[in-house]
Amino acid sequence: MNRPRKHNHHVYVVELSDRVWNEPSFRKANPDYQLSKPLVYVGMTGLDPDLRFDRHKAGMQANRFVFEYGLRLLPQLYEVYNPMPYEAAREMEVELAIGLREAGYGVWQA
Asked: Which of 9, 25, 35, 80 has the greatest number of CB atoms lying within 10 Å of its CB?
């Protein structure tokens, strides 16, 4: 018997402190950054985005930029997409990061 797959993966966007702009790797990844736009991290998770953000800030499987510079989640940029299957979340993470970067955001997506 095949059970329907649960859609339990999420993409999320974290606003980063302006101080992340001092990181050479972040600057290099964002040559077209517009100063008026936020600096963000885009990720995907099988957890609730709030819980995943808390884990980043606690240093558990954390991205360094979110651990050091993460300020808050920006649900207005991702809630419409969630939840989704794993493969869709993997693809959406990349697409969302590309779209935000094209809109002038400074984006880190690992």
From this structure: 9
CA distances to 24, 32, 36 from 56, rounded to whole Å, are 21, 27, 26
pTM of the entire predicted model = 0.93
Q: b vs e for 83-104, b when ≥16 Cβ sit within 10 Å of the residue's Cβ?
A: ebeeebbeebbeebbeebbeee
List the chain domain ranges. Answer: 20-32+79-103
Cβ 52 vs Cβ 108: under 8 Å:
no
For residue 50, give the H/E element and its range.
Answer: helix 49-58
